[in-house]
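Section 5: illustrative case.
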């Protein structure tokens, strides 16, 4: 089951948990209020999983690939890890399904504070278009993930500040509507 918490302000190794003391846990309901959708699936049987097939049909996720993030598997590993950890947004939803290993997605809450979401095998997350976020491996230094898209993939990340994009404005309107 996914676990999330508010991050401390430490600048130490990005792969560390960075929990505040005392820990400030974040619930699935709080994540949903930010537009973050979490699902738990059967990663051992992802190739034949009827739940994944139904999600892909219902959400129109027509394109998929699998990426392995590990120093021996990913070309330009060090550069990619730094890029993934830069705060950015996308103009489309970001959907990731962890098939092996683990890592962290960090998202900004409505008050611009970092929330760390610990992802492990079987976890699927959808980050809404326009949300500021970043990704890092955890101290295990390995993750294999499925990337899903509606239509052809768009890999463009827009580093902060990127507040003038329509996707960001729409996301901010979503947050305002959620607050009412």
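Designed sequence:
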């Amino acid at each position: 089951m996914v676990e999330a918490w508010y991050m401390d302000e430490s600048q130490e190794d990005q792969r560390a948990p960075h929990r505040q003391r005392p820990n400030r846990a974040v619930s699935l309901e709080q994540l949903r209020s930010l537009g973050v959708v979490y699902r738990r699936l059967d990663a051992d049987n992802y190739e034949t999983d009827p739940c994944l097939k139904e999600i892909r049909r219902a959400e129109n996720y027509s394109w998929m690939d699998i990426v392995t993030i590990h120093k021996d598997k990913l070309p330009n590993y060090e550069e990619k890890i730094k890029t993934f950890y830069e705060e950015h947004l996308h103009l489309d939803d970001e959907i990731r399904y962890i098939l092996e290993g683990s890592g962290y997605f960090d998202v900004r809450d409505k008050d611009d504070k970092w929330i760390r979401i610990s992802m492990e095998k079987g976890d699927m997350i959808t980050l809404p278009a326009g949300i500021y976020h970043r990704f890092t491996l955890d101290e295990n230094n390995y993750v294999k993930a499925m990337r899903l898209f509606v239509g052809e993939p768009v890999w463009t990340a827009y580093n902060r500040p990127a507040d003038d994009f329509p996707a960001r404005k729409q996301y901010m309107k979503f947050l305002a509507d959620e607050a009412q």
